[in-house]
Amino acid sequence: MKIRQRTWTKRAAAILSLVAVTLPMATNVAQASSSKDLAPHRAEYGYFIDTYKQNISTYKTASNNPMVGMLSSFSNYYANGKNLEKALMKENIDKAAKITQTRTPAEAERSYLTDWRDLRYSVINGLGPYSSAFIKNADAKTDFTSMPSTPDPAHRPWGHTPWASEDSRLGPIVSLLNHNSYTAYSGTGVIKDVVKYKRPYRQSSEVKPLPALVNVMAAAPENDYDFASGHTTAGFEDGLNLAYVVPERFQQMITRSSEVGLDRIIAGRHTPLAVMGGRMAGTAVTASALSNPSNQDMMKKAYDAAHSDALLGSKDTTTQDDFGDYATNRDNYRYRMTYGFKQIGNPNVAMRVPKGAEVLLATRLPYLNATQRRDVLFTTGMPSGYPVMDDTEGWGRLDLFSAANGYGKFNDKVTVAMDAKQGGFNAKDNWRNNIAGKGSLVKSGTGLLQLSGNNAFTGGTTVKGGTLQLTTATAAGKGNVKVNGGTLQLSTKKVTVKGNFQQTQKGQLRVAKNAHVTIKKTAKLGGTLKLTAGSLKNGTKVLTFKNHKGKFAHVSGLPKGWHVVYTKHAVKLAK
């Protein structure tokens, strides 16, 4: 939109003066996360995080502008005013039309506000119960509070109220978003001018512009193009920056970012392919800014401000959380990655992890090192072949929602060393993915790691320190389980160990009194068995196995008069 572009231009000039310079998707099926697999792939323009400041009007080719280069595959579908993939381009417009034709009043209202509000303000509701504290302590404001009943005038002025104050209690967060969003390097003006793909409402009368915006959209100049969506780009910049400083709301924030893209389609402004491109653009620009050494102090101050009483210490449980349902967020985010387009390219290209992309998970998975975070992105990435998404570096295939749930596959030994004293996710985290692979998991250090997926990894599980909590029957995968130290905690009544089970004298097994652990092979017992809440019944089998050696050195949690009995194939409770 021209008004927003003028806003970006003014902000860009200021920055330049300061800087002299359905629906879960299948994951990638590559077989090994070797150093070669995790190595970045250099694009024609270099690496985005190294060249992102070249996304300016001086550079307009795929070889010298990283935004143009990253999104260059669109030219395979549309170039020089011609649809080269007629079926795909028709589907793109048809999807946009259907979304505009079926929008609800609530969606219309939301898309209108997304259209006019400063997007830094617009994504605040992704913070859920912390949003009211953010608005208050960041002195956040907006001129737009509702959708008018009559169409806006063709040249309605953009609001001039600052979205938030850098002098507020949450000023460091405001400063970070002001610095990392709407920059001279994050606009989509260059790629739009290169592609010249018309807005959907100008391609088909079946696309129904939002009634409140019909005058504004009709008055937009002919060179106000569709691909890629600038609002979606900014929505992901803002959402990902907030997700970095408030990782406790990581998945909620990026779901709101994806909703910004949907809102653009709902309003009639953009096509699905345009907002898919915007997701890629916003993700790459944010990773570039967060990887820039000169921004590290600003990032730390913003993170510290978020974890003060001014934000995370001011939870309001009465606030409506638009993103409070995990399953809904997951399904919505994953659908919006592809908008239901089919794979039209090679579906068998191994996942690629862009240089620097691991920074996006730095605060969400702080107990993993940079290489491990790259491996998480590698094993949770989308399959290849979807339109727009197969850029050389791999930005289009990053599934950040799944990546926030930990690994999608163990291709080698994965050691997780948590330090509970650091708090936050270092003290407790939950991996919800269904983890496959031939590799193994080693839990060490302190802190508690939950495994909540339907896991099938075969390399085994070892607990050396802290707590590993299994919350599903198959959470331990299909290999052997060893408890050499720390605690293996079972939070479900039935757990199956497909291989052997071994517990040393330093290990602890913590289960409910009415739980049942099925060990398919041999059990070597030792250390402590701690029985927790659960009904007591004489003869209950806590563990069953093919055969066993040894006994638990200590058993706690049973009332007086109760004890455990060891038989050839079971450990039973007896009175």
Plain-language structure description:
This is Phosphatase PAP2 family protein. Residues 184-289 form the Phosphatidic acid phosphatase type 2/haloperoxidase domain. Keywords: Signal. With 575 residues, the protein is of the alpha/beta class. It folds into 2 domains: 22-402, Vanadium-containing Chloroperoxidase, domain 1 (Up-down Bundle), CATH 1.20.144; 410-574. The protein is 32% helix and 14% strand. The chain is built from 18 helices and 21 strands. Helix 9 packs antiparallel against helix 12 and helix 13 packs antiparallel against helix 14 (272-291). The protein starts with a helix and ends with a strand. The model is unreliable at 1-32 (pLDDT under 50).
Largest sheet: 7 strands, parallel
How many strand elements? 21
Report the mean per-residue pLDDT as an integer.
Answer: 93
Q: Number of helix segments?
A: 18
Counting helices, strands and paired strands, the structural category is: alpha/beta
**CATH A-level architecture of the largest domain:** Up-down Bundle
* Strand order in the sheet with the most strands: 3-5-7-9-12-15-18
Identify low-pLDDT runs: 1-32
Helix content: 25-40%
Radius of gyration: 26 Å
> How many individual domains?
2
CATH topology of the largest domain, which one? Vanadium-containing Chloroperoxidase, domain 1
Instruction: Tell me the fraction of residues in β-strands, as a range.
Output: 5-15%
CATH superfamily of the largest domain: Phosphatidic acid phosphatase type 2/haloperoxidase
CATH class of the largest domain: Mainly Alpha
